[in-house]
Design brief:
The protein is mainly beta. The protein is about 10% helix and about 35% strand. It contains three helices and 23 strands. Strand 22 and strand 23 form a beta hairpin.
Length: about 220
Amino acid sequence: MNSRLFIATLLAPLPWFLKRPLMQSLLGYRLHPQSHIGLSLIAAGEVELGEGARIGHLNIVKGLSRLELGAHSIIAQLNWITGFPAGPSPHFAHQPERKPTLILGPHSAITSRHILDCTNKISIGAYTTVAGFRSQILTHSIDLAANRQNSAPVEIGAYCFVGSASVILSGAKLPDYCVLAAGAVLPNPVNETHTLYAGVPAHAVKKLPADLAYFTRQRGFVE
């Protein structure tokens, strides 16, 4: 266990009024006074939480170079967010630019019991919800042709809705104002906005009205 992970593990069970200054002084995290981290293990090279951003209980975050939560964004509870750390290794040696990173835009949310593989960068746009349970976002796999591990970033746009038990694979991109239906598998980039994507593999099913209340809300949290 490296020193950063060891310190983060020791700090995880502490109450926030103690944990926040210790995370800032010992780990260098940048935590807005109105942000909050619950009883979770948060071990990343850089951590930045904006105003009102919060991480709930029983989350595991480790192996990331950077974790960034925009203002009022949420990681709820029981999520497993890990990556293969950057640095010298026989794995991913052909990708020295690889960035094990998770970026959440303002008012975005990851709900509960999801798995995010941040071996490469995952970016989630503003007002987007990774909803329900048991979705997987995977940024690496075995390249069978080259017989080696390979990774590629995943990008989810703004005002998207990712349904329960979805799978998003390395290199995939979901544009702004889209819905990925529950149980869908998105293996590649798609490019039509205001669209419902569903199926295995996911494909465009129908266009969505631009004036949907979800697409025009000014507050991320949905009551």
